[in-house]
């Protein structure tokens, strides 16, 4: 009975478009997984494609993504200052449970905001000069270690781009987030970006596909 309940909940929480990968006329598309690679997402655009030069393209965080994360951080830092200033008039009040709660609440918001800002700001780079794709500020080494293989790949190993929509449900609303993935020559996938603007992600995918000279497999058009 418990397994049936879990299965029902999983079925309700998952969503994917009904489509046939054979329409791409490529055997690799049939071997590739079409479930979302990265669960979750946002309902707004978090990244934009920037053409640095003819040999390098990057995904960078949008101003909206930075402001979104800074709101969390500002609330986390500002709440203890705003609500706790009256309590700080007396030393004994510092140890009151209400003040401790405000500090902990603010710390949680500040931590979330800082983590979001760090995650959004992490660059996503495609560099033909080096011949690599990677996420982060550190360039991959010529002979990649196991850890580097999880966040980087040789550009020549990229077979196609994949766009997959995912219905993200919360307590009181739901929205669709779109993830852009790399499909590698062994059929494995790597997530590039994941946000809520289908127009922008398709436009960026088209530019990136032209840069890499690979096809775009778009499962969001069904």
TrEMBL record:
<keyword id="KW-0812">Transmembrane</keyword>
<feature type="transmembrane region" description="Helical">
    <location>
        <begin position="65"/>
        <end position="83"/>
    </location>
</feature>
<feature type="transmembrane region" description="Helical">
    <location>
        <begin position="99"/>
        <end position="118"/>
    </location>
</feature>
<keyword id="KW-1133">Transmembrane helix</keyword>
<protein>
    <recommendedName>
        <fullName>DUF3137 domain-containing protein</fullName>
    </recommendedName>
</protein>
<keyword id="KW-0472">Membrane</keyword>
